[in-house]
Structure formats: structure tokens, C-alpha cells
Amino acid sequence: MKTVLILFLVFNINFLFAQETKLTGTIAAKNNKEKLAFATVSVFNAQNNSFLKFATTDEKGHYEILLNTPSFYIQVEILGYKTFKSEINTAKKAIQNQDFYLEEDSVALNEVVIMQNKSAIKLSKDKMIVDVEKAGLGIGNDGLETLAKLPGVRLDKDENVVFRGNANLQIMIDGKPSLLTGEELKQYLKTMDGTNIKTVEIIANPSAKYDASGSAGIFNIVLKKSAATGLTGNVKTSIGYAEFIKNYNGINLYNNTDKWNLKFGLNYNYSESANHRTIEQTVVNPFLTTVLKQKNDWLPISNSYSGNFGAAHKLNTNATIGASANYSVYKSDELTNGRTEEFDNSIYNRYTILKTQNEILNNTLTSTVFYNFATDSLDTKLDAQINYANYQNESDRITSNSYFRAITNDNYKNNEFVKYQNPTNFNILSAKVDFEKKINKAFSIETGSKYSYVNNDYTIVLQDQNAQGDYVVNTNRSNRLIYKESILSGYGIANFTTRKLEFQAGLRAEYINYNATSVTSNTKNKDQYLSLFPSFSINANLESNQFKFSYSRRIQRPRYLYLNPYYEYIDTYNVSVGNPNLTPQFTDAFELVWINKQKTSVSLFANFSTDEMYQIIDYNKDTKITTLYYDNIGSSKSIGLSYNTSWTLKKWWEAQVSSEVSFGQAKSDLEGYKFDNSGISYTAGINQSFTLAKDWSATWNSFYSKNGDYGNTTFKPSYDMSFGMRKDFLNNKLRLNLSAQNVLKKSQWIQTTKQDNVTTNWVNRWETRKVTVSLTYSFGSAKKKEVKEADLNDEQNRL
Predict the structure, then answer these.
(1) pLDDT at residue number 311
(2) DSSP letter at 695?
(3) Which run of H or of E encompasses 7?
(4) Which of 485, 456, 483, 468 is nearest to 417 (CA)?
(5) Fewer CB in 10 Å around end: N or C, the chain?
(6) Cα–Cα distance between 632 and 241 in angstroms, integer?
(7) Sign of the C-alpha dihedral, residues 151, 157, 161, 166?
(8) What string of DSSP letters covers 595-633?
């Protein structure tokens, strides 16, 4: 009996090991054999058709999957190509090589071209990928408006992108950190045509490989690429109207051969837009209640020009070198008309008329030189880059304030004229090296380092008009700030893979040394410190279910200008000022994700922050001036649950549903500004797509969002819906788009802030109910390789 038992155990052990099969191979286009990156390779059990595992191809179209199933079949999916399903395979060998070639995703049926349905929201490893083109989110929108339509995203009162209630995002473009943030980033995103965005990758909990900035995670904007080898490209134009006219135009050219990849692009955008801001501030004192009612209409007219060029040369099958450069010019003529009415104990006493004319000129240059190496087996990879960026801004603003009595309409004080100039010059140099090595089939390591140097020259010149009509420099409110900063960082990551589990652990270290010098006051603010950022994740692949638990530590460093202790003049009632004592905010981020059949996902997330940077609204009852500044208030936490799924209701009708609910709490220990408040936030969205006859397709998108109480601020809901129609001509080379955005005119930001005896109601409404018509003509039909863009670290995002 013992002998039989031993033989039985040996047989089963051998049988189990015999089932472990390593599937490897490449995915390529059938017409030109071009390797396809980011294709999803799924394995199914041939006996019951249940889902087993999946992998995503790398930049060379390579995939690798470990499994222990006797019989299986493979399914390959990627946007723009037909889904491929293999024959049934048996696990006879320890290593099996399976190469597949995909056809383009269109079939002729009774002279009608029907595009195969693809999910607009896709989950891949640590990313949620939103297909902007599939969902129709980019039609008629600029880049900023397109981001605002993503699941769980909205714009705050200052048009900052907010994800899961947090505006602390790191924005990347084609996998590279963007240069700008704040006003500069918003201006750049507004010059971008939303229809040129292919997908947006949402990485809620990044690993140690990424820069540690951004407690809300990373948004990677993936732009559209050329679709053909040889000389290819596209020409596009669109015209839109809401309250004012807009126009986007562009041409992109690509020339790709076996050895060279070249690209060239020119874009011109013209936009007239508006923002309507209403602020009502109530100050309650024992014997006097003062109410200030302010209405401002911001009316910018902007022209932007951009050009880019890149070249990559393949030295051999393993190595590539290249360089690219982007140059953009942004010009804006901005008119602000405002009126502020003052009430004392409900009696209308006086009003102020505001008029501001601001001329802005921005010039931005980013450039990179890079080298890439990868062995044939992809066991070893090396990526090296040197990047340079320069940002120059000229701002020339004149503000006039006229003061009147409400009853007589005569002046109760002299008119004021203020000239505000803000010349800036930022220079950034960075270098980085990333290395990956696969030790064996189960273990691999990643490591790298980065060095950046920042030199910013920021000047504020504020001049008051005297009685003679001459402008005289106000030395108390003028300042020149020189900010120098260097950051040295390094990281290490270990990856371990078993049959059903994937482990990753990493540590990132960042050492910063900065010196902020006020030339005007001859004062310095400097510091140096070392910060450590651990990360950890574990993935479990169990039949048709995947589970992922991850943790990472993040940082939010102050923007350079938040440290400048000098005024930025907004109007006679509002100014902002920097805080030289502001320190970084640290966040511990956790996430648990369940994915069912690559279709439905549920995420439980939690963020815990210390030294939270919070915008303070400080009202002076004597001067009636509100001062805005940032300070470290204390701690905050956010715990939430998100849900995403899709349904194919009919062959021609697909719906994507996303929803989220979260609890947020902020606690302030700041003297004179203490609070401990919390609230529930929730958001929901439905993206519907319709494939119709004769090359027609349509989209219908809608959302509802409500932020809960956070700190000393409450919010009101925002909701709206948008529609789009598309028609393809000339064998899909010419595309006509018609869209109507935010037709209900309810996409706006409404908040109420209460602190002590001051209540501030703030409403921001941007242009809504916008109609856009666009035309795009493309030539070329095959995939291409893209030239790298500049890789600039998180410090550049704080300009």
C-alpha cells in the first residue's frame, strides 16, 4: 500500500510540474509585421472557456505568461485591430512560442463598414485606461475639458484637475512628466485639441519607479500616433461655438523606415472663451453684518502656436538613439469686467467697478536626447536621457477700480490704477538612467537614478498711479525671487513571479537642496532634506478573477511661487501671497482592486496625509481685503470605493458605467484656523457608444458629481450630458465629427467656506453648451514607432 501511495504522489507531482508552461511570443500587424505594443493577450481554459490569465505586450510586442492548464486557447485584443482567437493548445512543452499577426479592425459587409466594439475603459496591471476616442470625450473639447470628463474627475474653482477629490496629480504626456503645472499647465492643455488624445492612463498608486510627487496618482495622456510607414500624417481642422468662437488646426507628418523614425508637427489654435465667477462674502460682527457681492467675467482671447520635431535612429536590432524638441508660443489678451456691491446690515451702500486688461506671452521649449538598449530576449533593458526645458513668461496687466456710492452714483474715493508686471524665466536640466534585468523566469530587478537642476528667476513689479498720472513702483509689493534647486533621486525594485502571484517591492530616495533668494529684501530661505518612498504590490491571478493590493508613499512639494512672500494683486478685494515656511505634504496611499473577467473592477482606496497644504481664505475686516495663501494645516484622510463595468446591450450599443463614493476628513491645528470636518463625496458617469449603418457612429456621455464637506468647505453638485456624431468617408480616411457638449449648462463649481464669522460662497461657471464641427484627413495605413519626448521630473511640474 505504501508503494502504491508513493507512486501515486510521484505521478501527481510530475503531472503538476508538467502542466507548468511558459508562453512567449510577439504580436504584430499582419500587413507589415510591425510589432504592436500594449496588446492584451488572454488565456482561457479550453474545457470550460473560463478566463485564466492575461499579459500586456511591451514596446517590442513581446508577451510572457506562466500557466499550468492542460488545454487552453489564446485571445489577443488591441484597439484598431480585430480580436484574434487561436486554436486549442495543449501544454506539452515547458516553453511554447506563439507569435500572432492581427488584421485591422474593419470588415466589409454589404458595402457597410462596421467597427468592432471595444471597451472604452480597460484595466491593465496598475492602470485604468480610458479610450478617449471610443468614448467620444475629445470631440469639441480642448485637453483640459477632455480630462474633466474622465471617471472620477472634475475641475475645481481654479480649473485645476481634481481626481477622487484631490488636485495633487502628476500629469504625464506620452509617458513623460509634463513641464508645467498650475496656470501654465492649464494654458498648455487648453491649446491641445481633445481629438488628438487617444487614451488617458490613470495610475492611482504608482510604484517607486515613478517620481514621488502627486498624492492623487498619475494621469498619462497618450497622444495619437501615425498609422503608416513611409511618409504619412494627418491634417485636421475644427470650429466650435459656445458663448464665443474657437478654432483648432494642425498638421502632423511622419516618415518611418527600418532605420529611421522622423516626425514633424505644426498646430495653431484660436480661442475666445469666458469664465463667470460669483463670490458672496458675509462677515458677521456683534453690531454689523457686512456682505460683499462680487461678479467677475473673465474674457480671454488667445492664440497659440506649437511645433515639434523628432528623430530616432536604430543603431542595430538592440539599440536606438534619438532626439526631439517641442516649441510653443501662447499669446492671450484677457479682459476682466467686475462689479462688487457692499451691504452693511442689509443696506446697499456702495459699489466698485473693476476692469483689468492683461496681455500674456509665454514661450516654452522642451528637448531631449535619449539612448535605448534591449537584448533580443528583453532580459536586459537600459534607458538613458538628458533633458532641457526653458519657460519664459511676460505678463503686463493694468487694473482700474472706480468707487461709487449706491444712492448718488458719485465717487466716494479717487479711482485707482495699478500696473502689474510678472516677467519670469525658468531653466531646467535633468538626466536619468533606468535599468531592468531579468535574473530568471521568476525574479527580476529594476533600478535607476535621476538628477535635476532648476534655476528660476521670478519677478513681480507692481506700480501705483500717482496724482500726476505716472506709474510709481510699489516697493512693498514688488519683488525679484531667484530660486535654485537640485534633486538627486534613486530607486530599486524587486519583482518575483509564481504561478498565480506577482510580488513587487521598491524603495525610492530623493535628496533635495534648494535656495530661494529675495533680491529685493536681501533675504534667503534655504533647506535640504532626504525623503524615502517605499512601495509594495501583490497581484493574484485566479481563474477569471484578479486581485491587487498596493501601497506607496507620495509627496507634494510646494510650487515655487507658494514660497514667495510677496503679493500677487488680483483686484481691490483679493490678493494672494506666498508662505516661505510652507513644507511638503506626505501621503500614504493604499489600494485594493478586484477585476472580474477583465470587464468589471471594484477598487477600495485610502489616502492618509500629514502636513496637508491647504488654501487659507483670510478676511481683514478693516481693509475688507481677502488674502489667499497656502499653509500646512495638519492631517487629512480619504477612504473610498470605485466601480467600473461595461455592458453590450445590443451589437450596436455599448455602455460604460463608472461610479465612486468616498469619505474625506481634514483636520487643522493651525492657530486661528482650526477645524475638524468630514463629508461623503460621490460621482457617477455613463458613456454610451452606438455603431450605426453607413459608417455612422454616435456617443452619449453624462455625469453627476457631488463633493462632500472637506475641511471648512462644503460643495454643491455638478452634472451634465454631451452628445457626439461621427461619419467616415473615403475608406475611413476622412472623418467628420459633430458634438454638443454640456447641453444642460450645469457643469460648474460651487463651494461655501465658513471660518469663524466669515462665510464665502464661490461659484465658477465656464463656457457650456458648446457645439463643434471638425474634419480630419489621414493618410497611411500601418503602425509606426514613436520618437521619445522629453522626460522632466516632478520639480518641473511645480512652476
Answers:
(1) 92
(2) T
(3) helix 2-19
(4) 468
(5) N
(6) 42
(7) negative
(8) EETTTEEEEEEEEEEES-EEEEEEEETTTTEEEEEEEE-
Residue 517, C-alpha cell as written in the block:
533668494
Nearest one of 742, 735, 760 to 750, comparing CA atoms:
760
Label residues 490-521 b or e (16+ Cβ within 10 Å = b): bbebebebeebebebbbbbbbebebebbbeee
Please state, in angstroms and rounded to a whole number, the distance separating the CA atoms of residues 213 and 556: 5
Helix (H, G, I), strand (E, B) or coil at 765: strand
Closest CA to 275 of 246, 255, 297, 293: 297
Euclidean distance between CA atoms 336 and 561, whole angstroms:
23
Query: What pairs with residue 38 in β-bridges?
Result: none
Identify residue 299 by its one-letter amino acid code: L
Phi, psi of 159 (to 5 degrees): 65, 30
| Amino acid sitting at position 241 | Y
Q: What share of the chain is helix, strand, coil (3-state, %, to 5)?
A: 5, 65, 30
Q: Could you tell me which residues come within 8 angstroms of residue 236 by beta carbon, excluding any fewer than 6 positions away?
A: 193, 195, 196, 248, 249, 250, 251, 774, 775, 776, 777
Residues 6+ apart with CB under 8 A from 5: none
The answer to whether 171 and 181 have CB atoms below 8 angstroms apart is: yes
- Residue 241 CB neighbours (<10 A): 15
Strand locations in 501-620, DSSP E?
501-518, 523-542, 545-556, 567-571, 574-577, 585-596, 600-610, 613-620
Tell me which residue has cell 479592425: 105
CA 636 to chain centroid: 22
d(CA 654, CA 353): 52
107 beta partners = 114
Q: Give start and end residues of each alpha helix (H) in 87-220.
A: 132-135, 143-147, 182-190
Contact 169, 216 (CB under 8 A): yes
Q: HSE of 279 in the Cβ direction (CA atoms, 13 Å)? A: 20
Beta strands 347-374 and 319-344, pairing class: antiparallel
Q: At 269, list the grid cell.
A: 489654435
Q: What angle do CA 209, 215, 219 make, to 5 degrees?
A: 70
Neighbours of 317 (CB within 10 A): 9
The predicted-structure confidence for 208-251, as pLDDT tens digits, reads as follows 887 777 767 788 888 776 645 678 888 989 999 999 999 989 89
- Residue among 546, 643, 551 nearest 591 (CA): 551
| Segments of the chain with pLDDT less than 70 | 1-20, 32, 48-50, 59, 79-80, 91-92, 105-126, 135-136, 139-141, 151-152, 156-159, 165, 175-188, 190-191, 215, 225-229, 567, 569-570, 598, 780-799
The helix or strand, by DSSP H or E, that contains position 636, with its residue range, turns out to be: strand 634-650
- pLDDT of amino acid 106: 44
Rounded to an integer, what distance in angstroms lies between the CA atom of residue 132 and that of residue 122? 11
Question: In terms of Cα–Cα distance, which of 678, 646, 645, 676 is closest to 662?
Answer: 678
User: What does the alpha-carbon distance between residue 556 and residue 666 come to, in Å, rounded to a whole number?
Assistant: 16
Beta strands 95-97 and 21-29 are parallel
For 46-160, list the strands marked E by DSSP: 51-56, 62-67, 71-77, 84-85, 89-90, 95-97, 100-102, 107-109, 112-114, 121-124, 127-131, 153-155
Give residues with Cβ within 8 angstroms of 112, minimum separation 6. Answer: 693, 694, 695
pTM for this model (two decimals): 0.75
In the chain the first and final C-alpha atoms are separated, in Å, by 77
